[in-house]
Amino acid sequence: MNNQTGSNGSNGQRLLIPLKEAAGMLSMCRQTLMEYVKKGTLPCIRLARNSVYFRPSDLEIFIDSREVQYTPTDIPA
Questions:
Q1: Which residues pair with 48 in a beta bridge?
Q2: In a 10 Å sphere around its CB, with 0-12 CB exposed, 13-18 middle and 19+ buried, how is residue 52 labelled?
Q3: Where are the domains of the chain?
Q4: What are the distances in angstroms from CA 26 to CA 5, 10, 40?
Q5: How confident is the model at residue 1 (pLDDT cuts 50, 70, 90)?
Q6: Quick one: CA torsion of 54, 57, 58, 61, rounded to 10 degrees?
Q7: Is residue 42 within 8 Å of 52, Cβ to Cβ?
């Protein structure tokens, strides 16, 4: 039987992603990711005092909200 973070939803996607893995997926440290949680920018799930998880859909929304469209003259060097 799968554990909570490895369980699959009806679409085959994992239900929850642990903090360490989510930070790695986003190429940021855990502390930075938790700052977004504390600011209310990124929702999280706490299953126990020191266990923080994220829904894949919340991570996708977080990523999409940071998309920036540059014109050719705006691209930073």
A1: 51
A2: buried
A3: 17-64
A4: 18, 25, 17
A5: very low
A6: 150
A7: no
**Considering only CA atoms, which of 53, 51, 67, 64 is closest in space to residue 22?**
53
Residue whose token pair is 């126990």: 48
Spatial neighbors of 8 by CB under 8 A, at least 6 apart, are 2, 14, 15
Q: Residue 44's pLDDT is what?
A: 97
- pLDDT of 2 > 60? The answer is no
Tell me which H or E stretch contains 18. strand 17-18
d(CA 21, CA 16): 10
Residues near 54 by Cβ (< 8 Å), separated by ≥ 6?
Answer: 16, 17, 19, 22, 42, 43, 44, 45
